[in-house]
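Researcher:
Attend to token order:
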Amino acid sequence: MGEIESVLEKYQIRPTAIRLLMYKFLRERNIAVTLNDIESGFEKSDRTTLYRTIKTFEKKGLVHQIDDGTGVAKYALDEKQVEDGLPQDLHLHFHCESCNETVCLTDHKIPHISLPQGYISRDMNLVIKGVCDKCSGK
């Protein structure tokens, strides 16, 4: 069994051909991608199949969706999470206003926040906006 098949099976995802290709596609990128980015990478695949695949990955915890304020959902594979087999962590994201790329800053965790009694959190998303290292030239 190959490496990708092992990862998918660890997340209880049946390793079909499109799922193997989608995982490889996401792993090869260091940035969060939109559904349009995925469609561009899989021109001969059905849009519905691609959407269902990314949603399956999200539901199983293999990828997470990022709302970076652009109005378009982006998806990212957390390579550290996959390697360690850890549950999804809460980390910072950085959105570059120059190149429009969004990246996960997995080494920078969001601290636990105590909510008032009766409040129940479901998700947390912290996006820092600015200029990335590539665009700033530093």
Remarks:
- The chain has a mean pLDDT of 88.
- Helices lie at 3-10, 17-27, 35-41, 47-60, 79-84, 133-136.
